[in-house]
Amino acid sequence: MALAVATTAAAACGGAATRSLVTLAPPPAPSTVATLAGNLCDGQVCQCRAADGPGDGGAGAPPDGVKRFEIRVGPSEHALWVTVDDMVLYKSVARAEDCFYVDLGAGDHRLGLRAANPGGVSAAVTVSEYAAATQSWYDTFRFACGAPGVCSYDELAEFKDGLAKYKRDIHDPCGSVKIKGLAWDTDVAPDTQHPGNLQVAWTLDVYEFTPKHPHGDPACATRFE
């Protein structure tokens, strides 16, 4: 069974959206292979910043020409993989949640989430952009299905319906990232309700400009009017 959603400029203008599918692939090897950034990372491991803490939360500011992103994987009791371009970020069953910090330049960056568990998957990932100029983190993207609980086809359908609230596919109106090509694929569940394999794919279109307002600033509400 394949469930997918793709958001395009045509859809934003009222035209027909292009249907884009991903295909289930075997999970990557159970290890992180990435270029991680910031003060919270050491080798292939990072600590999570306090999500409600002030400023950068210890993650530090990126060098010129790139933007710093937090990839928060979980919470989930299952192993999860997130890919960012050619990097692999792995959360094992030993930890409910892991965080990774990466620096990305302007342009398109392909991301993916892979979950596999015979009894049903619990999958969640949150991507947040940091802007040193505003000392603020932005809600770039969030996906969760069966977290907590077990992911179901109905929950995936609800997630798809909820995407309509995001104008121009920008999930945080104060941020500087657009979500493109969001799609997912699952296997056919034995109970017809809870897939044991899930693969999600999406693209971060990172704009060159730096956000001018902190997350939640009322001034951003009129950005697309």
Describe what you observe in this structure.
By secondary structure, the protein is mainly β. The protein has one domain. The chain is 6% helix and 34% strand. It has 2 helices and 11 strands; from the N terminus they run αβββββββββαββ. The protein has helices at 9-12, 153-162, and strands at 41-42, 45-46, 67-73, 80-84, 87-91, 98-104, 107-116, 123-131, 136-145, 177-186, 197-206. The strands form 3 sheets. The chain has a 5-stranded antiparallel beta sheet with strand order 5-4-7-11-10, with no helix packed on it. The longest helix has 10 residues, at 153-162. It is globular.
Number of strands: 11
What structural category characterises the helix and strand content? mainly beta
> Strands across the major sheet, in which order?
5-4-7-11-10
User: How far do the termini sit from each other?
Assistant: 38 Å
Which shape, going by the Cα principal axes? globular
List the helices and strands and how they pair.
Elements: H1 9-12, E1 41-42, E2 45-46, E3 67-73, E4 80-84, E5 87-91, E6 98-104, E7 107-116, E8 123-131, E9 136-145, H2 153-162, E10 177-186, E11 197-206
Antiparallel strand pairs: 1-2, 3-6, 3-8, 4-5, 4-7, 7-11, 8-9, 10-11
Features:
five-stranded antiparallel β-sheet, four-stranded antiparallel β-sheet
Concise account of the structure shown:
The protein has 225 residues and is mainly beta. It has helices spanning 9-12, 153-162, and strands at residues 41-42, 45-46, 67-73, 80-84, 87-91, 98-104, 107-116, 123-131, 136-145, 177-186, 197-206. It is built from two helices and eleven strands.
